[in-house]
Design a protein that fits this description.
The structure holds 2 protein chains of 2 kinds.
Chain A (H helix, E strand, L loop, with lengths): L1 H33 L3 H4 L6 H6 L6 H13 L5 H9 L3 E4 L5 E7 L2 E6 L5 E5 L4 E3 L4 H15 L5 H12 L4 H13 L3 H16 L4 H11 L5 H13 L3 H50 L7 H18 L4 H26 L8 H23 L15 E5 L2 E4 H23 L1 H11 L1 H6 L4 H24 L8 H16 L4 H22 L1 H18 L15
Antiparallel strand pairs in A: 1-2, 1-5, 2-3, 3-4, 6-7
Helix pairs in contact in A: 4-6, 5-6, 6-7, 7-9, 8-9, 9-10, 9-11, 10-12, 11-12, 12-16, 12-19, 12-20, 12-21, 13-14, 13-15, 13-19, 13-20, 14-19, 16-17, 17-19, 20-21, 21-22
Chain B lengths: L1 H22 L6 E7 L7 H20 L7 E7 L5 H14 L4 E4 L3 H14 L3 E3 L12 E3 L8 H12 L3 E7 L2 H16 L7 E6 L7 H11 L5 E6 L5 H10 L9 E3 L4 H4 L11 E4 L8 H14 L8 H20 L4 H8 L3 E3 L5 E3 L7 E2 L2 E5 L5 E6 L4 E2 L13 E4 L5 E5 L4 E2 L6
Parallel strand pairs in B: 1-2, 1-3, 3-4, 4-5, 6-7, 6-8, 8-9, 9-10
Antiparallel strand pairs in B: 10-14, 11-12, 13-16, 14-15, 17-18, 18-19
Classes of the chains: A alpha+beta, B alpha/beta.
Chain lengths: 554, 430
């Protein structure tokens, strides 16, 4: 009896509860129907804790709503959460659903709570789950972070924020930009803001303002400006405005074409610097010693793999690992080079065809060796932070850092090599042996030793080139094959036995290739360069800078 | 250090063992399975994995007691990424080793090279890689995706879900990208995209200097309309391409790249930071969460003895192909090629994404199409998939030459039947 009555009361209570709930719900529904813009008018102020808690569940579109809400929360903890989410570094602990930031420490993860930045303990990877984001969410996050980032003290962050705002110009963003402009000191950001304001003024009803802003925009290279001007030319009916817009657009176009030319030149020089790096070692072995070394590419591959191994040993010092790799790659590739010279090539001097076949065989052996030791798949070599990204000159012209550093590196390597050949005892002996072996021998030069050292030097340089290539392309067993033809091309074109020729040859081929490419496409450009070299060699068989004097045989 | 020495020693052993394996032509009581994948040369990077997958499947089938009461025996040969050598090795497998079935090939050019051999000697080939279509041979079962199972749905996704209006079709200069891009171009124009909104670009194999092309893509994408890159760039050229994109500041949110040749295996050799958010279209991702896939991944990792190895789409295609062949042999109660070919049609086996793959009369499969976003750990996160399975179409409906062509090995007994002229052509098989 008592039992059933208690049950009845329970049922009754729950009924009342449900009734209350549904009443509340219908009231809310009513509010919805009266006031459609519930989000703004009945803006429920939710706390940071509540907003973030719902990040752990639901689909991408649910998460989108949560992020939108989170953005409206006025709390300084919002920005780091959005930033970490963008970087896919926001996780939650599977058991407790507690949201945390993570930091990897020796295989396990140190977590800190997003609520109070306190340590939340060490976890294995499988105990944590990532708050996943897709491109749509990333775009949303980036926009929000940009708006929050306008307050940042970091110039780069502010600049990115302004750029983001320029994509969607309306009265609201202009107001935000104008507020920023008053405090802004950085000139390039000011330029961006000015462009934004001018674009906005273009749509104004006042003709004078419109004309003034069209004129002001003729100096701007921001891509949005060009689009807007083209729009005006198509849409406007006013002749003066149209004329002004066309002349502004012309000014912009002529500037763009100048920078387009500069861009091609920079691309060409950077391709040239890669060609220089891969060819300069060959300029020693082929140019000075006359050995056709088909395994030259594989020596570069060994250099690249050295970088990989060094990075595996120093996983937390990516930048340092690159610098350590340079001398190490020189030694590794150099050692292989000396071994190849001692065991194979020295028996084949004066027999170029046999040398070619033997070194080709060596290249296959080295490839398969690497495949057996490291596996056939490519290896991931990390790019240090200072080498990623680009140096922005203006809105349409930028130089990527990795290309810039590789250019500098190539020049340094070339200068060092010239120094070795011109100023050291080894260099003197190398030149002596290459000019007149018998006479050098008679003067007491150990020509065999010099041969080994020269080949080692050329191979070592190939290894160093491999370090640079590891930053540009795949580190895999086939790395060498991709470059061997190019390197021979450069040496033959530049003139055998001449480092300056190699330099000029590499740079001019690089620039030539890059100016052809936009016009002919990458495939045809390569073919045309090859045809050009063949024709050139017909005219000048000894290349750009031929060896002169009595040292020249035949 | 000593670890590598061990590796060198063990790989030397493996090489000699493999040589022994391919030379041992015993007339024992076994069913011979040929494996025709490159173990050296450029394609070794991709194909070695498939060789290991077949060996794993054979080992597993033998543990279950073999097939028709006989043990399976693998005959592994190395065509060394050399296309004419593929044909030679195929002939060797079929004539000298007398294998009952062959799993092999990766590139379309290698498949085209062995095709006449298989048709002449009436062999049976399972081809496990996505390809450009426009082919259906009686002697080949295509367990990878046809263009309508990868390229077309990916473009649909970009068009409808992302709102892409301008298209860059970038590819390596050979048959698969050229045909795929031809189909895509026709499809886009059919959907109302204007010619000036399509940019087509080809690069040589292993292209490594992407500065100009990425800069062009950037300019093409700054015209105020949403732009995407559809990439059929193959193999090694991808790494420098994505690196250049990252360095020139082209992010996946602004200009997404959807790739048809970049999978988990390719990503495992890349620093994935600049790639996060870019897309790939496949019929399988390692990250798909279900029981079959988990079991497969576990089996693979134990077999290959490396807990970091990944699985990928062509492996799934090999898995499905092998299981189908086993079922067909059981159904036909013989390994005779003609009988197995008949039995294959209509066979259903579970795929690894939670559905059933069915072999269609045109020798292609039904497959789900998944779009995944690249994550920092080198895995894909599925963001979209087709509702239900897409039947593979051997002859594209979007190319003028192949619109009217169908393939049906049951009713028409023809792989290249023109419905307008009512003629069967292109196959030497009658």
């Amino acid at each position: 009896m008592t039992l059933s009555s208690r049950k009845n009361i329970q049922i009754l209570l729950s009924l009342i509860f449900i009734a209350m709930l549904s009443a509340g719900y219908s009231a809310a529904a009513l509010a919805d129907s009266i006031e459609p813009k519930t989000e703004t008018s009945v803006a429920i102020v939710i706390s940071f804790e509540v907003a973030t808690a719902s990040l752990t569940a639901g689909s991408y579109s649910d998460r989108e709503q949560v992020i939108k809400k989170l953005y409206t929360v006025d709390d300084e903890r919002v920005l780091p959460v959005l930033q970490q989410m963008l970087k896919s570094k926001l996780y939650y602990i599977k058991k407790t659903k507690q949201l945390v930031f993570i930091k990897k420490i020796d295989g396990s993860y140190k977590t800190t709570s997003i609520l109070n930045n306190e340590d939340a303990g060490l976890f294995e990877k499988n105990k944590l789950k990532k708050v996943k984001v897709n491109n749509k969410l990333r775009r949303l996050l980036r926009g929000y972070i940009a708006q929050l980032g306008l307050k940042s003290t970091d110039d780069a962050v502010r600049k990115a924020a302004v750029k983001q705002l320029l994509k969607n110009i309306n009265a609201e963003t202009i107001a935000v930009l104008q507020v920023l402009d008053k405090k802004e000191t950085n000139s390039s950001i000011k330029e961006l803001v000015a462009a934004g304001v001018s674009i906005w003024n273009l749509s104004s009803n006042d003709k004078a303002t419109q004309l003034a802003s069209i004129k002001a925009l003729s100096k701007s290279l921001v891509p949005e400006v060009k689009l807007k001007l083209q729009e005006i030319i198509e849409d406007t009916e006013d002749a003066t405005i149209k004329k002004a817009a066309i002349s502004s657009l012309k000014k912009i176009d002529s500037k763009i074409s100048i920078f387009g030319f500069l861009e091609n030149l920079v691309f060409g020089l950077s391709l040239g610097s890669v060609l220089l790096l891969i060819a300069v070692g060959l300029a020693i072995t082929f140019g000075v010693m006359g050995v056709i070394n088909m395994a030259h590419g594989e020596l570069m591959m060994l250099g690249a793999y050295t970088t990989f191994v060094v990075q595996q040993m120093l996983p937390n010092h990516i930048t340092a690992s690159i610098f350590i790799s340079i001398p190490l790659a020189f030694l590794v590739a150099g050692a292989f080079g000396v071994a190849i010279e001692r065991f194979v090539i020295r028996y084949l001097y004066g027999r170029p065809l046999e040398t070619l076949l033997a070194t080709f065989g060596i290249s296959l052996i080295l490839q398969q060796l690497v495949r057996s030791v490291f596996g056939p798949t490519n290896q991931a070599v990390q790019t240090p932070a200072f080498m990623s990204g680009s140096l922005e000159i203006n809105s349409i012209f930028a130089i990527t850092y990795n290309r810039l550093y590789i250019f500098i590196f190539a020049i340094v390597v070339l200068l060092l090599l010239m120094l070795i050949l011109k100023k050291t005892r080894l260099g003197l002996q190398v030149r002596a042996v290459s000019q007149n072996r018998t006479m050098a021998k008679a003067m007491g030069v150990k020509s065999e030793w010099v041969d080994a050292m020269t080949f080692g030097l050329g191979s070592g340089i190939a290894g160093v080139a491999g370090v640079a290539l590891s930053q540009l392309t795949n580190v895999g067993p086939n790395l060498g094959q991709a470059y061997i033809i190019d390197s021979f091309m450069v040496v033959v074109f530049g003139g055998v036995g001449n480092l300056l020729g190699t330099f000029v040859g590499a740079m001019s081929l690089g620039v030539f290739n890059k100016f052809l490419e936009p016009w002919s496409g990458a495939v045809l450009a390569k073919i045309l360069v090859l045809v050009f070299i063949i024709l050139f060699i017909q005219k000048r068989p000894r290349g750009l800078f031929p060896k002169k004097g009595r040292g020249v045989e035949d | 250090m000593s670890n590598w020495i061990k590796k060198i020693a063990s790989s030397a052993l493996v090489i000699t063992a493999m040589l022994g394996l391919s030379l041992s032509v015993q007339a024992g009581n076994t069913i011979k399975v040929g494996v025709l994948h490159s173990l050296s040369g450029t394609m070794a990077i991709s194909e070695t994995t498939l060789k290991d997958t077949v060996l794993m499947m054979i080992e597993e089938q033998n543990k279950k007691g073999g097939l028709l009461g006989k043990k399976l025996e693998a005959v592994v040969v190395d065509p060394a990424s050399n296309w004419p050598l593929f044909a030679e090795k195929a002939r060797e497998l079929l004539q000298k080793n007398k294998v009952d079935v062959v799993f092999g090939c990766w590139t379309s050019v290698s498949r085209k090279s062995v095709l006449p051999v298989f048709e002449e000697l009436n062999g049976l080939l399972f081809y496990p890689v996505q390809y450009e279509g426009e082919e259906s041979s009686k002697n080949v079962f295509y367990t990878g995706a046809a263009p309508n199972q990868q390229a077309i749905p990916a473009v649909d996704y970009l068009m409808n879900e992302i709102g892409v209006k301008r298209w860059v079709l970038a590819g390596t200069d050979y048959v698969y990208p050229r045909t795929t891009n031809k189909i895509l171009e026709a499809y886009l124009k059919h959907k109302g995209v204007k010619a000036k909104d399509i940019m087509i670009n080809y690069t040589p194999f292993g292209h490594s200097d992407w500065q100009s092309i990425v800069s062009d893509i950037k300019k093409f994408g700054s015209k105020g309309k949403k732009t995407a890159v559809v990439s059929t760039i193959n193999g090694d050229a991808n790494v420098p391409f994505y690196k250049e994109l990252g360095n020139q500041g082209v992010s996946a949110e602004n200009i997404p790249v959807v790739a048809f040749s970049v999978g988990e295996e390719e990503l495992s050799g890349i620093d994935t930071k600049p790639l996060v958010g870019h897309l790939a279209a496949w019929n399988y991702f390692m990250s798909v969460d279900n029981k079959e896939n988990a079991a497969f991944i576990k089996k693979w990792k134990t077999f290959i003895k490396d807990k970091n190895r990944v699985t990928n789409d062509p492996m799934e295609a090999t898995y499905i192909g092998f299981n189908m062949w086993v079922k067909a042999v059981q159904k036909a109660k013989t390994t005779d090629v003609d009988a197995v070919e008949k039995a294959m049609i209509g066979i259903k086996t579970p795929n690894l994404t939670g559905g059933m793959a069915e072999m269609l009369p045109n020798h292609h499969l039904t497959k789900p199409v998944l779009i995944g976003e690249i994550q920092e750990d080198g895995q894909f996160d599925v963001v979209w998939e087709t509702e239900g399975l897409v039947p593979g179409d051997a002859w594209s409906d979007h190319l003028p030459g192949s619109k009217d062509v169908v393939s049906d090995w049951v009713k028409l007994k023809c792989g290249n039947y023109n419905t307008k002229t009512k003629k069967c052509s292109g196959q030497n098989f009658k």
